[in-house]
Design goal:
Elements lengths: L1 H20 L1 H20 L5 E9 L3 H6 L15 H8 L2 H11 L11 H7 E6 L4 E8 L2 H58 L2 H5 L2 H36 L11 H14 L5 H22 L9 H40 L2 H38 L5 E9 L3 H31 L6 H8 L3 E5 L21 H4 L4 H16 L7 E6 L6 H14 L4 E5 L7 H4 L8 H5 L5 H4 L1 E4 L2 E4 L8 H5 L2 H13 L2 E5 L8 H5 L5 E7 L5 H14 L3 E7 L9
Parallel strand pairs: 5-12, 6-10, 6-11, 7-9, 7-10, 11-12
Antiparallel strand pairs: 1-3, 1-4, 2-3, 8-9
Helix pairs in contact: 2-14, 5-7, 7-13, 9-11, 9-12, 10-12, 17-18
Length: about 675
């Protein structure tokens, strides 16, 4: 599906370019028919009768406020058809319309009320509750303006009434909004006070979780005490080796521990087998610990090195013991906090919290809903959404037979003009097989687009501060800041960016056929590269239609032919029209040019210029006409093909592609002289 859509868009773009290409011919054909039809229609007389139809909604207020979802408490009386007729025919409104539109009679005086009413006709339909306003006049614009003015005045009047009713409802809604805000603030205050009274983890933790945490804390305390006993034993042994008595080991306060465990015993089953076993293990460990701590052994160590190591170990053990004691103290405090939490009825507290939270959320929802409706009412009063009057039919003109003939003639003329314009485009396109799009040229050549040169004329090339016209062939040199220079700079940047891995020093420039602008592009590309500070050599290798000596206004008496035949030296044929740019013209030559490129001097020339120049450009003849470009390309790093929209055709490109596929040269890309690319678009 995406492929079909992409193809459809591509085809329409191509059709649009073809239409633009022949737009002058198409526009001329269209205007001829339209002008002829207009002249014919002018001779036909007209009569005008403008009428418009409006309908009053059955409930003006509800129709505008149903969209806002706002309940209506008090009923308002709806506007009746009789009131509409009375308002539209009232003297105040009629006089206002006469003055605003400057309606006059045949004598040039302002139209009187009676004469206006005589031309005005208002009919009512009880079934559809619609009013039809009709005004008859000799001037079509005047008749439309009158009906439009009457309908607009009536709509504006109803909208003002509508806004007034909306503002009344808004006052009631503001009172409800203030009450809802008070309730919301009260509920939020209660919720904040409740959260300050109870900690967050009490609200989120159940009794089972609390009991589980108490068990985990007890296990951590017992494990830490066991590690302390081992550390004390190590400390005693180290001190005995050092020859000092073991310092008294602090005993854990059994009474304190038992007191803290009473709350836990009241919460758990103290007679359970698990609890009994844990208590027995605890008593046995404490007994062994006290026996070990009371023993005293004296050992004197005489070696200084052992004393240092033992002292270091003693310091580490004592530090580790302090850490374990600090952990036990922290866990004891946490255990006390959990005992306190276990005494609180968490389920009841959580239920109270949920009730407060639901009431607060409900109050917030009510406030937000009322606030949103209040804002909608403000918008409704300012923008008058859903007006209470519906326009069933905009202002139209009833014409007699002659009037209809006018429209038929003009519309028919426009239709015939369009058909003739399209036929002109189709015929011209059939006779001209040239390609109109850049994409088509690149697609047939199966090569990357390096750049598009816009459609530039002689009078476009004026350097800043000068009115002297500049030729397109030398635009880059004589106007370095022109659009042409920027277009060629894009091509140069693409060549450099696409060939980072491979150094491009020799380039062949050719085309599929003549008149495609390859010589102009070669000259401008050489001038641009020279302006960038690189040494450039431009060689005109087109012996069949040489152009470079004409572009640069150089002598063609000596050139490439004389050098390849060893009839002249390199220094004799090189000409320098500007800084960093050298040019070799073809020179006068009669014979087969292919024989020149197969000489050994051609290879010697290539090796010589590669050492002297940063870029060497060969301007060669078209591929389809002469094989020179494909032969020269063997000596270069790649070929750039030049095309021109409106000149290049598919047959030439296909033949050129077949020749390229046979010899398989390196194609660096395609440059298109785009006739449809204007300066503004570029």
């Amino acid at each position: 599906m995406k492929l079909i859509k992409k193809t459809f868009q591509k085809n329409w773009q191509e059709y649009w370019l073809i239409l633009r290409y022949y737009q002058l011919y198409a526009l001329g054909s269209f205007l001829v028919i339209v002008i002829f039809a207009t002249i014919t229609a002018i001779k036909v007389e007209r009569s005008y009768k403008a009428h418009g139809e409006i309908r009053l909604e059955s409930n003006n207020q509800n129709s505008s406020l149903k969209l806002l979802d706002i309940p209506i408490q008090d009923k308002q009386e709806q506007a009746s058809l009789a009131e509409g007729v009375s308002f539209l025919s009232s003297s105040s409104l009629v006089e206002k319309v006469i003055e605003e539109l400057n309606l006059t009679d045949n004598q040039g005086n302002l139209l009187e009320y009676d004469k206006f009413i005589h031309k005005l006709n208002i009919t009512q339909n009880e079934k559809t509750e619609a009013l039809t306003v009709t005004y008859t006049c000799n001037n079509i614009d005047q008749s439309k303006l009158v009906v439009n003015s009457l309908i607009s005045s009536y709509i504006n009047n109803q909208l003002e009434i509508h806004r007034h009713k909306i503002l009344e409802i808004k006052n009631i809604l503001d009172e409800q909004l203030a009450s809802a805000l008070t309730r919301l603030q009260h509920n939020r205050t209660e919720l904040y006070q409740f959260l300050e009274k109870y900690e967050q983890d009490i609200l989120e933790t159940s009794d089972e979780d609390n009991i589980k945490k108490l068990r985990e804390i007890d296990q951590k305390i017992e494990s830490a005490k066991s590690e302390i006993q081992k550390i004390d034993q190590e400390i005693i042994e180290i001190r005995l080796k050092l020859g000092t008595t073991a310092s008294p080991i602090p005993k854990f306060n059994q009474n304190s521990s038992s007191t803290k465990n009473q709350a836990l015993d009241s919460k758990f089953n103290v007679n359970s087998s698990v609890t009994t076993n844990l208590k027995l293990d605890k008593s046995e460990l404490e007994t062994n610990f006290y026996k070990t701590s009371n023993s005293k052994v004296f050992i004197v160590t005489k070696e200084p090195e052992n004393i240092a190591k033992l002292t270091e170990k003693l310091t580490i053990y004592e530090a580790e013991k302090k850490i374990r004691l600090a952990q036990i103290e922290t866990w004891e405090k946490s255990k006390i906090n959990h005992h306190k939490k276990s005494e609180i009825n968490a389920s009841e507290i959580q239920q109270q919290y949920q009730d407060l939270l639901e009431r607060t959320q409900a109050a917030e929802t009510e406030y937000n809903s009322l606030f949103r409706k209040s804002q909608q009412l403000v918008i409704a009063s300012n923008q008058a959404i859903n007006p209470p009057v519906e326009i069933l039919s905009p202002v139209t003109i009833e014409n007699n037979l002659s009037s209809r003939n006018k429209e038929i003639i003009i519309i028919s003329g426009m239709g015939l003009g369009l058909i003739l314009a399209l036929a002109t485009v189709i015929i011209l396109e059939k006779k001209n097989p040239s390609l109109k799009t850049t994409e088509k040229i690149c697609e047939l050549l199966n090569a990357e687009l390096l750049g598009r040169i816009p459609n530039l004329k002689h009078f476009y090339f004026c350097d800043l501060g000068s009115s002297k016209p500049i030729l397109p062939e030398r635009s880059v040199l004589e106007a370095p800041y022109s659009v042409a220079s920027q277009a060629h700079k894009i091509v140069y940047n693409h060549l450099e960016s696409d060939t980072v891995e491979q150094s491009i020093q020799l380039v062949t420039i050719s085309s599929s056929a003549s008149q495609e602008g390859k010589s102009t592009f070669s000259a401008n590309l050489a001038a641009l590269t020279a302006q960038l500070g690189k040494k450039v050599l431009l060689i005109d290798a087109n012996f069949h239609q040489p152009k470079q000596h004409e572009i640069w206004q150089l002598s063609n008496s000596l050139g490439l032919a004389y050098l390849l035949k060893n009839m002249a030296k390199f220094e004799d044929i090189v000409q320098s029209p500007c800084l960093n740019l050298d040019i070799i013209t073809t020179g006068f030559f009669i014979g087969c040019s292919l024989s020149l490129f197969q000489l050994e001097t051609m290879q010697e020339l290539i090796e010589n210029v590669k050492k002297q120049y940063d870029l060497i450009i060969f301007d060669t003849p078209p591929i389809n006409l002469y094989p020179d470009a494909l032969i020269i390309n063997k000596f270069t790093d790649g070929m750039v093909l030049v095309g021109r929209t409106g000149i290049t055709n598919s047959d030439n490109l296909i033949r050129a592609k077949e020749l390229i596929d046979k010899l398989q040269p390196i194609i660096l890309g395609v440059v298109v002289n785009d006739k449809m690319l204007s300066l503004t678009r570029f």
